[in-house]
Amino acid sequence: MILLAAFALRLYRLGVASLWYDETVSVLLAQKDLLALTRHTAGDIHPPLYYYLLHFWGRLAGWSEFSVAFLSLFCGIVLIALVYRVAREWFGTRVAMIAALLVALSPYNLWYSQEVRMYTLGALLGLASVYFFARLLTADRRPPTAIRDFVGYVIVSALGLYTLYYFAFLLVFENLVALVWLFRNSQFAIRNFEFRISNYELRIWFSSQLAVLALYAPWLPIAFRQATDPPVPPWRSFTALPNVLLESFSALAFGQSVDPLMVLPILVIVAGVIAFAFGRDRRPPTTDHRSLFTVYCSLSLLGYTLVPLLIIYALSLWKPLYHVRYIFTYSPVFYILLALGIQQISNLQSLISKRILLFTVYCSLFTVSAYSAYNFWSNPHYAKDDLRGTAHYLAEHWRPGDAILINAGYTYTAFLYYSDLPVDWRGRLTEYATRNTSFDYRSGGATILQTGSIGGAANLGWGNPESDFYATTADETRAALDRVFAAHPRVWMLRLYDTVVDPDGVVRDYLATRGRIIDDEGFAGESYARVQGYLTTRAPLTALPSTATRREILLGNRIALLGFEPAATTVRAGASLDVNLYWQAREPTNVDARLYVALFAQDGVLVASSDEMPIGNAWGTSRWTPGEILREPIRVIVPQNIAPGEYVLRVALYNPLTNEMLAASKNEFVTASGQIVLMNVQVEK
Question: What is the pTM of this model?
Answer without folding.
Answer: 0.91
